[in-house]
Amino acid sequence: MEQPSASTRLAGAVRDLASEVVSALRGGDHPGVVCAPAGIVEDDKLGIAAVRVLGADVLLPSIMSRRRPEGLDVRILRQALTAFPPGADASRATAWSHWAMARSLRALDPPVPHPADDEPDASWLDTAPWQALTHQVSLLAALAVPGGDCGVLRALARRPHDVARGFVRAVRRRDWLQAAGAGRWLAVLDDVPPSLGLDTGLEFIQHMDGADPRVALHVSAAQLLRAGAPR
After folding, report:
1. What are phi and psi for residue 15, nearest 5 degrees?
2. How far apart are CA 114 and CA 224, in angstroms?
3. Residue environment code for 52-88, b if the CB has 16+ CB neighbours within 10 A, otherwise e
């Protein structure tokens, strides 16, 4: 029988990991443990790569519940941070995703030592067309967390109507992952147009493609934020 390709195995590992994050987010008092249930252990190359793809969201259940995360999750996130540094030609999304992981580790109590990376540049978000803006920031939805002040959030705070336009466009195009990421950002922004109907939109996305764990992750995070999780 033909063996699955490396990219197929990585995609499967990312889905399994995202599923565990969703389970922890929806579990109420469920502890924020995600790597072990997903079968990821330390020095597991495939698992570490999956953690790098999901990024800081590996610790999202603990961030949302204000609990210290599982030690294994922290150690594997740090391994992923070290194993996959952004290169000189890395995309803006890659640079910001790496920064978000480092920020999550530094925010722990006690913090996990890591070089204090400066924020990547976010000035380009001020002039990006709203379509491109939504595409880019949907890739960075892991930054949309309670108290997650950063350059991306500050830029989007100046353009909530453009993010809302991008959210509607993504829903109409049936790009559920982009819509879910944009919706998560809208959940932490002020001055979102009431006419948008964000809560109904999030429910619709969940209904249409909630079987995709990464879509479900962003929708669950957005709904928790909308329900009053501290920002």
Report:
1. -65, -45
2. 29
3. bbbbbbbbbbbbbbeeebbeebbebbbbbbeebebee
Phi-psi region of 66 (alpha: psi -120 to 50; beta: other; left: phi over 0): left
Please give the model's pTM, rounded to 2 decimal places.
Answer: 0.92
In tens, the pLDDT along 63-101 reads 888 888 888 999 999 999 999 998 889 999 999 999 999
- List, for residues 157-171, the tens digit of each pLDDT value: 999 999 999 999 999
DSSP letters of the chain?
A: -PPPPHHHHHHHHHHHHHHHHHHHHHTTT-----TTTTT--TT-HHHHHHHHHHGGGGGHHHHHHT-PPPHHHHHHHHHHHHHS---TT--HHHHHHHHHHHHHHHTSSSPPP---PPPPP-GGGGTS-HHHHHHHHHTTGGG--TT---HHHHHHHT-HHHHHHHHHHHHHTT-HHHHHHHHHHHTT-SS--GGG-HHHHHHHHHHHHTTSHHHHHHHHHHHHHHTT---
